[in-house]
Amino acid sequence: MRSEQFNKNDSLGKIIFIYTVLVIMAIISIYPLLDIVKISLRPASSLFSTDLSLIPKNATLKNYYTALFVRPYFTWFKNSTIVALLSTVLSLIVAVFAGYGFSRFRFKGRNIGLLSFLLTQIFPAPMLLLPSYILLRYFGLIDRYIGGIIPYIALTVPFSVWVLKGYFDTIPQSFEESAYIDGANFFQVLWKIMLPLSIPALGVSLLNTFMATWNEFVTANIVFTDTELHTLPVAIFNMTGALSADWGIFSAACLVTAVPVIILYIGMSKFLISGLTLGGVKE
Amino acid sequence: MTGKKSMIPYFLVLPSIMVLVFMIGYPLVFGVNLSFTNMNLYHFLNPQYVGLKNYSSVLTDPELYTTALRTVIWTVINVSLTVAIGVCLALLLNRKLPMKNFFRVLLMLPWAVPQYIAVLTWRNMFQAQYGTIDIIFNKIGITNVAWLSDPFWTFVACIITNIWLGIPFMMVISLGAMQSIPTELYEVAAIDGIKSWDKHRHITLPLLKPVMTPAIVLSTVWTFNMVNVIFMMTGRTGDNETQILVSRVYKDAFTYFNYSKAATFSVIIFAILAVFASSYIKVMRSGEGVYD
Q: Which residues, listed in sequence order, are joined to residue B49 by a DSSP beta bridge?
């Protein structure tokens, strides 16, 4: 029995040790989530309780009501959705074209182009943020959706280009050539042949781009200064800013925001991991 | 079509290159230019060139060097511990074990939680007196750790949070690599009577290297550039003695509106990263087929 379930030669002590380590690490990894569940259920009167039990006494859903309906949660949700969706769509369109160009054509400047996409991964947003911010301000794009969307496209395009280019490379060119012989034009080939064959890579790019923009804080915090335009990360961060931070409402808002993302991530984890080997971490 | 001379590839690639030029290339140049001016909130529309004044004030400020040193410590501790813990967990999961998928999902959870929510939650757990960690510490008799009021302990809290965030990535990457190692290698080693630990040292670790090298390089860059954890943990006006280079720039620029100083800091960070990048490219080139 044991030999079927465990490695051969595993002593009982070793098995107990392995499970102990795994259980401790698993507790550490889920505890913060349980902690916000606990705090979100606390009534306002016992916010400063030192009770560690998971479901507090007098548990109440009032914090959820306040977070969702008293605070403008759905305005923030709408802002996040608009910014993330538009950024994702535009970023993917740009990346599909670039990925296809880099994969199927040999042209002057190709290597430099590819290398510069790689370099952007090394010089990421924080150090470009200040000049970008001043430029966006010069063009009057602060406190407008587009002011967040443009930086997000720049932020996410390089990864998608690498993933898509890598995937297009694995598709035999004979498919396209026969379509061209049958008289299809360039866009038909891309739309009807390449894209349907590249669903895994498209999915990875889409998920990565959407998640990156949906959860982005550093840029959103400086571009969307108007409370009406806050995206969820900025709004939730600002809930903790003041001295009188209400952690109960904060925790409720966090949970409502995080749970769908967590389910999506865990559900898609195989997909995302394959994406890491497909693109960024390939070579 | 390959090799055919046409304009098509340029039209295809143009939009993405334009995005890079306008949002990365131009800001880069603009930022360097900014570092030679006195741009701040008072001189926003009429900045004047001040030559190397910003550089001399930043480079002679001892805070630059302590912040740079802190950034190195931050990066080294975070990357080495996430790699060590991630690989160890992957080793435990890469064996016959009932319920291992259940544990794998639980251990991956920190990866799925939006980063900002995770950091703010940790910040709440580190609160004095009412935070969970302080409660637990008090119960076991440790009462003198001032998590979020002492800069040193705030920094430790940031490191703990960042490691928690980083472990799943390393675990997943190394687990993937381990699963692609042929089991025959271990069977042969077992026949030769090689002990379990030696097996890992001579088979697993060398075969992990090609996968782990780029992952480690990436994670080094991410950690070096981590604004989220430090900025959110310390708040808008966090203590300077907790900042790393990038979070310091972010705070100088967007809390104190000292644009030219932040730009100067950025240029210096750029120089440091450029050195790192050249070695990164060497690493990438050593693997074959980057361009094909």
A: B37
